[in-house]
Amino acid sequence: MIDILIKNGNIYDGINAPFTGDIAVCNGKIAEVGHIQAEAAIEIDAEGKCVAPGFIDIHRHGDMAAFRDGFGEAELMQGLTTIINGNCGMGPAPVEKGSSLEGYLRPVLGDMLPMADTGSAQGYLTSLEQAAPPLNIGMLTGCGTIWAGILGYGGKHPHDDDFARFHAILERELSAGTLGVSLGLGYAPECFLTTEELIKGLAPLKNTDIPIAFHMRQEGDGVCRSVEEVIAIARALKAPVHISHLKAMGKRNWNRLIPRALELIQKAAEDGVDITFDAYPYTAGSTQLMHVLPPDFIEGGTAAVTERLRDKAKRKELEERIACGTDFDNIAGMVGWDNIVIAVVNTDANRQYEGNTIMEAAQLRCESPIDCLCNILIEENCAVTMIDFITCDEDIARIYGAKGASVISDSIYPVGGRPHPRLYGSFPRIIQRYVYEREDITLQRAIEIMTSAPAAALRLKNKGRIAVGMDGDVNVFDPRQIKERGSYSDPACMACGMEYVLLGGKIKLQNGQLMKGVKGAVIRR
Ligand SMILES: [Zn+2]
Fold it and tell me: Cβ(277)–Cβ(265) under 8 Å?
C-alpha cells in the first residue's frame, strides 16, 4: 500500500512547467507520479495547491546550531528539507576546542558545543547523526579551517610540507563523506594565498566531480577579477566550481558588474567549464564586522587585530584606506557607515548598540565612525556581527534569471542579538518578492532555483526533483499564502504558509505543526 498519496496538485517537478497530477510516496521515496487510483494510508488533497520538491539551501552556517535545541523550525517552516553547512572556507572540523581557531570561527559558527565532535569530518558527521537532526544536513569541508590549522592567520605562504599536510587532511575529510569543499578567499588565512597556491592545495580534486564552492576574494569593485580567478582554478583542476553569494557591492557597481560577471560565467560554461553560482534574496549581507578592515589588518588572530586597532598611527592609516582604498574589498568605503548595522555583540555594555548603524553608534558614543568601529571591535574582542546594505534587487533578479543560479540564505545563527532575517525567510521571500511583487521570475523558475539547481550544483543525486525514485521530500502549499514575516528590525519570526512538508516520505510539518519524531538524514557523499 502507498504510504502517502498527494492528489490533484499542480506539480512543479523542479525543472518543467507544472502539470496536474498525483504523487505516491512509499518507503521514503517517490514511487509514482501521474494519475493514481490506489489505496493509501494517508491521502492529501492538494487541489489548487502547488506541489514541489523540498527546498534545498546549500549555503548555511548552521554547523553548531544544528546541535542546539529547537533547531530546524526556522528551516522547515520555509519548506527547507535539506541544508548544507561548512561554507565560506569555515568548517567545524578539524578544530581543536579552546584553540585560537575556535575563537576565530565563533562569530560565524557559534560556540563549539560539547556534543559536537570537531576533531575531524568523520567525528563531526557521526556526532551529528547521534543528534538526529530534524531535517537533512550535509557539509562541505572548509579549506580555510584546514589552512588556519597549518599556517595560522599570519599571512604565511605554504611550503611543500604544508601542502603535503593540507592534502592529507583534505583527503581524510572528503573520504568521511563531505559533499565538496569551500574556500573563503575574503578571509584570513586564504586571502593571503595566491591563485597558484590555491590550485596546488586543491590538487587532490583534479579531474574529480567534487564541487569547489568559493566565497570569492572580492565582491565589490573587483568582483569580475574574482570570477576570472574562479574560472582559472576550474580550468586548472578540471573540477566543478560554484560561486557563493554572487554580488557586486557598492552603489557605483550596481547594474554594471553583475551583467559582466554573468557574461564571464556564461562564456566559461559554453567553453566546457562546470560552473554554477548562487545569491541570497536580500540587498543586505551579514558577516563579521572585522571584515570592513583591509586583509593586512586582520592578520594574526584577534589579539593581533585589537593591538593594531589600538595603535594611533595604524588607526589613521585605516581611516585613509577606508576613505579611498580600492586595493581590498572596502565594504565601508563602498556603502558608507550609515549602511553598516551592528547586529550582534557579546558584552552587555555594548548591547544598546545592536540595531544601530556605525554612524548612529558613533554619534551616541561621541566618537568618529573610525574610532567607534575600532573601539567596539577592541571591546568585543572582534566578535561583532554586522548587517551591511550592499547590493540591489535588480542584480539579484538578474542572477536568478541566469543559467546555473541557485537560491541560498547564507544564514548565521547568533544566540541573542538581531540575526539577519534571511535565516527565517529566504525561501518564502523568493516567491513573495521576486515572483509576485517584482515579477522578475516565474513560479516555475523560482522552484527550479530552490530545488533542482542547488541539488545539481552539489551533486545531491536523489534530491530536488519530483520524479520516480527520488527522495520523498515534498512541499505542498498555496504560493500566494507563503510569507516571510520577519524584517531587519524584527527578524526572528517564523515564515508561514507551508501546508505540508514531507521529509523522507513522512509528514514532518502539517499546517504549521512540526512532527517531532520524524528525523532527517546526515548526507554523505
Ligand atoms: Zn561567504
Answer: yes
Q: At 113, is the secondary structure helix, strand, or coil? A: coil
pLDDT of residue 107: 81
Domain ranges across the chain: 55-283+391-461+469-482+489-509, 288-389
DSSP assignment letter at 134: S
The residue with greater pLDDT, 420 or 523, is 523
User: What's the helix, strand, coil split of the chain in %, to 5?
Assistant: 35, 20, 40
The cell numbers describing 492, all together, are 526572528
Q: How far is the CA of 136 from the centre of ligand 1 (A)?
A: 21
Distance from the CA of 414 to the center of ligand 1, in angstroms? 16
CA of 488 to the centre of ligand 1 (A): 20
Highest mean pLDDT among 278-292, 312-326, 440-454: 440-454
Per the CB < 8 A criterion, the answer to whether 33 and 23 are in contact is yes
Beta-carbon neighbour count of residue 422 at 10 Å? 26
Which residues touch 514 (CB under 8 Å, ≥6 apart)? 72, 73, 76, 134, 508
If you measure from the C-alpha of residue 337 to the centroid of ligand 1, how many angstroms do you get, rounded to a whole number?
A: 21
Global pTM reads 0.93
CATH architecture, range 55-283+391-461+469-482+489-509: Alpha-Beta Barrel (3.20)
DSSP bridge pairs for 215? 184
Q: If pLDDT is split at 50, 70 and 90, which confidence band does 251 have?
A: confident
**Residue showing cell 562564456:** 267
Residue 127 Cα to ligand 1 midpoint, Å, equals 25
> b/e for 211-246, b at 16 or more Cβ within 10 A?
bbbbbbbbbbbbbbebbebbbbbbebbebbbbbbbb
pLDDT of residue 478: 98
Most confident of 225-229, 287-291, 343-347: 225-229
CA-only gyration radius of the chain, Å: 22
**Which of 104, 129, 107, 103 shows the shortest CA–CA distance to 116?**
129
Give how far the C-alpha of residue 428 lies from the chain's centroid of Cα atoms, to the nearest Å: 16
Task: For residue 266, give the 3-state DSSP assignment.
Answer: helix
Give the burial class of 313: count Cβ atoms within 10 A of its Cβ; 0-12 exposed, 13-18 middle, 19 or more buried. exposed
Angle at 180 between CA 178 and CA 183, to 5 degrees: 120
Kindly report each contact of residues 361-369 with a partner whose C-beta sits within 8 Å and lies 24 or more positions away, as own/partner. 362/337, 368/319, 369/337
